[in-house]
């Protein structure tokens, strides 16, 4: 394995040209609204547990039973 391939795992930021820190100003306005809605629903208690979510999924998908 070449040393260049070894560096890919250490520096994926440079390989894939991702942005390491994204501020709220850079996020899409629709995404910000969805995040705000999710936060509000969580505060209102409109959430379900992981176990409940899995139970609902299993009811709908027979192959997971």
Spell out the blueprint of helices and strands.
Blueprint: H1 3-10, H2 12-16, H3 29-43, H4 50-60
What does this structure look like?
With 65 residues, this protein is mostly helical. The chain has 4 helices and no strands. It has helices spanning 3-10, 12-16, 29-43, 50-60. The chain is elongated and about 45 Å long. The N and C termini lie far apart (43 Å). The mean pLDDT is 75.
Short structural description:
With 65 residues, the chain is mainly alpha-helical. Helix content is 60%, strand content 0%.
What structural class do helix, strand and pairing data support?
mainly alpha
- Report the sheet-strand fraction: under 5%
Q: H/E element string?
A: HHHH
The Rg value, from CA coordinates, equals 20 Å
Question: What's the total count of β strands?
Answer: 0
Main beta sheet strand tally, sense and closure? none
**Count, helices:** 4
User: What level of helicity do the residues show?
Assistant: 55-70%
Features of the shown structure:
about 60 residues; mainly alpha; 4 helices
């Amino acid at each position: 394995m070449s040393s260049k391939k070894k560096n890919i795992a250490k520096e994926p930021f440079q390989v894939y040209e991702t942005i390491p820190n994204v501020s709220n100003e850079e996020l899409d306005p629709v995404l910000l609204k969805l995040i705000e809605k999710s936060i509000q629903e969580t505060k209102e208690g409109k959430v379900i547990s992981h176990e409940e979510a899995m139970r609902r999924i299993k009811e709908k998908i027979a192959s997971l039973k």
